[in-house]
Amino acid sequence: MDRLYDMLNFNSEFVEKKEFEKYKTSRFKDRKMVVVTCMDSRLTELLPKALNIKDGNSKIIKDAGAIVLHPFGSVMRSVIVAVYELNADEVFVVGHHDCGMSCIDPVQTINKMKDNGISSDTIETLESSGINLQQWLHGFDSVEDSVKGSVDTVKNHPLLPKNIPVHGLVIDPETGKLDLIVDGYKHKES
């Protein structure tokens, strides 16, 4: 339970030894791209290497399942900010095989919430307010279909310029192999 203090002690040394200097970069780099991907820890180092992304060459948005769930949620807001404020001119949605969101059982998750002290009253209040927790917690059955759905949400957003290509890919977290699901260049032309 001392993780916080271990990190703070390490950070103190990190700053004192000027380790940060090798990571300095600009907010505005040559490869102006935004990547929406999963928060799976297997992708932390693998994905940038597999995409040939160097430090600072992209804006990476991590989200459970790489799912753009709501057109006006925080993931889409980050995409819009990356385009208008950080000069991103392409969007990549990258899901992955063997994703935990493909097998999440919302009922079990809700039961875990209750086991951890969230009252049934809280759950019922949220649901009576129009929040369908089972739908909100449900992941996907097909990563390819999920990526297509997220690409459509981004591509058809009323605030995204029509000239921004939105690509969809799926990465294998074991090998780094990428499968092209949506070619944003071809989609843009049609």
From TrEMBL:
Keywords: Metal-binding, Zinc. Its EC number is 4.2.1.1. The keyword Zinc applies. Gene3D superfamilies: Carbonic anhydrase. Pfam families: Pro_CA (PF00484). It is an enzyme of class 4 (lyase). Its cofactor is Zn(2+). It comes from the Bacteria. This is carbonic anhydrase. It comes from Paenibacillus marchantiophytorum. The gene is ytiB.
